[in-house]
Design goal:
By secondary structure, the protein is α/β, with parallel strands linked by helices. About 35% of the residues lie in helices and about 20% in strands. It has 7 helices and 12 strands. The chain has helices at about 35-45, 70-80, 100-110, 130-145, 185-195, 205-215, 235-240; strands at about 5-10, 30, 35, 55-65, 90-95, 120-125, 145-150, 160, 165-170, 175-180, 180-185, 220. Strands 1, 4, 5, 6, 7, 10, 11 and 12 form an 8-stranded mixed beta sheet that branches. The chain has a two-stranded antiparallel sheet with strand order 2-3. Strand 2 and strand 3 (about 35) form a beta hairpin. The longest helix is centred in the N-terminal third of the chain and has 14 residues, at about 70-80. The N and C termini lie far apart (about 40 Å).
Length: about 240
């Protein structure tokens, strides 16, 4: 087993309700394929960049239940371009939350003959991720065990109470908006997910689970171009950045 083997999990199990329309946001056309295939291509390209020492062992795409055909269709153009990638791609049904979807993907990976050393988890609706960001996360994950890209928020941040009144004035210099991909040691993250699955708390991302059960997460340089497509107009906005 390569000491730098990475699995990549790309999340595409959500319903895209905030986008509207008949097509899931991950399956919208982009470049020569789709939003999803553009995400996949970013990590395939990173695995072929000699700077990264990054062996892409598995690529897991979380999808809606009974959604394999639609996901495969969204990846079809990329498979025609690079058919070998199809051999390491698995489609895994997600759950009713992001937390459950990632757990399902990690559990699927845990049954592989050769376990990856690390795992990168990326939003399938974040197609503008750069090679630099992926490289920073890979390096940070290898050095610290867990890493995620972040950017300083441009707006002043406040914490409010349950009635909507400001109760704490936060210092912007101490805050980051966390993006993906987020990288972790695989075995430790899977063990943490198993514990988190039983603790009754709903986690919004994997850095929170790692922080609760494993330790600190290193924040590396993100980018305001690495946007997540959530609302109509976001895709066009990302193309203009």
């Amino acid at each position: 087993m390569n000491s730098n083997s990475f699995a990549v999990i790309i999340t595409a199990a959500g319903s895209s309700t905030r986008m509207g329309g008949d097509v899931k946001k991950e399956y919208l056309p982009l470049n020569d394929g789709t939003v999803l295939s553009t995400c996949v291509k970013a990590f395939v390209d990173a695995s072929r960049d000699p700077r990264n020492d990054f062996n892409l062992s598995n690529l897991i795409i979380t999808i809606p239940v009974d959604g394999t055909d639609a996901a495969s269709a969204a990846m079809a153009a990329f498979y025609q371009f690079d058919s070998k990638i199809q051999e390491i791609v698995d489609y895994v049904p997600g759950g009713h939350t992001r937390h459950r979807s990632i757990y399902n993907a990690l559990e699927h990976l845990s049954k592989k003959k050769n376990l990856p050393d690390y795992v990168l988890i990326h939003d399938g609706a974040r197609p503008f991720v750069s090679q630099n960001i992926i490289s920073y996360v890979i390096q940070g994950t290898k050095e610290f065990g867990a890493a995620a890209p972040g950017i300083t928020p441009t707006d002043t941040q406040k914490e409010i109470d349950e009635s909507g009144f400001i109760k704490r004035h936060l210092l912007r210099k101490d805050l980051v908006s966390i993006q993906t991909p987020q990288g972790f040691k695989f075995a430790e993250l899977f063990a943490a997910h198993q514990k988190a699955f039983c603790d009754g708390h709903e986690y919004t991302d994997d850095t929170e689970i790692w922080g609760n059960y494993c330790g600190r997460v290193k924040v590396v340089t993100g980018s305001n171009k690495n946007i997540k497509i959530t609302y109509p107009g976001d895709l066009e906005k990302g193309l203009k950045n």
